[in-house]
Amino acid sequence: MSGDDRPDEAGADAGGPPAPGSAFYGRRKGRPLRSEQAARFDDLMPRLRLPLEAATLDDLKALFPGAVAAVRLEIGFGGGEHLIHRALERPDLGFIGVEPFVNGMAKVLMEIGRRGIENIRLAGVDATEVLDWLPAGSLERISLLYPDPWPKKRHFKRRFVSPGNLDRFARVLVPGGLFHFASDIDTYVDWTLRLTRAHADFAWTARTAADWRQPFAGWPGTRYEAKALREGRTPAYLEFRRR
Question: For binding substrate, which residues are annotated in this chain's numbering (predicted)?
Fold first, then answer.
């Protein structure tokens, strides 16, 4: 989720404020779900949700019914276009999607049900809760795509890319694992470059300017990217490797 389409700050919505201790800023709920969406939510979410109340799993791959070679995480998947595309593209991998916004979760559940996708698991909570639950060295890739930029300086501390969250990324990524970040907001791109390049556990993989102006391999595009391009903003695609 990102840009002008993202929910407003917590406390200004029908979903109420986040749970105590949560770092999530944003609405939990927007328009009421349609009856079909609500039914799909009740049907699929209990089966697909991460068991965060249980002890951390020894093997994250056990979450998925079929054999998967590795597991990837997408934080704030919005409408789920990228998450669905990647899961269909790579049925040999497991995918975890995190999205606290109920309406975004409903959209992805509709697609999962319609397409019969088996290699996605979901969490509708603050992503830090998921990161702290995951086993160390359990992820091949983390994607943070068009996150809320929080453009006002006094809100910079709300940006998801932070030294603390980069520590979390480093803990759960395997050596050689990747952190993918995309944004059309220059100040957030600069922020992410500065913080991640300063982190001892990450190396920026770009060698030329084209490396971070070109979308990631197999990139399907998202509605946030399309909006940015219509409004004349140039997205950046940053890749960092876990040392």
Answer: 152, 184, 222-225
